[in-house]
Amino acid sequence: xxxxxxxxxxxxxxxxxxxxxxxxxxxxxxxxxxxxxxxxxxxxxxxxxxxxxxxxxxxxxxxxxxxxxxxxxxxxxxxxxxxxxxxxxxxxxxxxxxxxxxxxxxxxxxxxxxxxxxxxxxxxxxxxxxxxxxxxxxxxxxxxxxxxxxxxxxxxxxxxxxxxxxxxxxxxxxxxxxxxxxxxxxxxxxxx
Length: 192
Fold this sequence. Notes:
By secondary structure, the protein is of the alpha+beta class. The protein has nine helices and nine strands. It has helices spanning 2-15, 17-27, 33-38, 77-86, 104-118, 124-137, 142-149, 154-160, 165-173, and strands at residues 44-45, 50-53, 56-58, 61-63, 71-74, 96-97, 100-101, 186-187, 190-191. A hairpin with a 2-residue loop joins strand 3 (56-58) and strand 4 (61-63). Helix 2 (17-27) runs antiparallel to helix 4 (77-86) and helix 2 (17-27) crosses helix 5 (104-118). The longest helix has 15 residues, at 104-118. The radius of gyration is 20 Å and the shape is globular.
């Protein structure tokens, strides 16, 4: 849910700027772990306010993305600010440690430690699910979610969208709006 994610963001920021950026890249841009690791400053367009996701790191090798397509993901304001604050010249990669790219284990550990501190489930890939779920709960079209995540099939995107109980309740309350009465009431004896 939104509250748990916010706790994770806060704890990641308290820990480390890289941890904070990883949590935002996953939860507010939907990047996979390998895509985060391969992200270069040349992929960050502050003028267009977007990320170009065009490569991934798999078993320490730079490859194309999982879907083998380039995609563009708009930046949230919070992610944009975090990227600007994190900007460095030590490496072409966004995520680095002393000039060297972060490894998968380093990325995973940063998320694990922040998640423990926040009292939430850990895992870098969970952040991608969070991204899809939050977009769905805010009313984003499923097709738009599919596009920014780079899923080839809509069914994959739908598996990533987990709705909170509050979101399900809010969806049902949409039926109460503007119908002139409660669900199940009849008008002129005919069920609506």
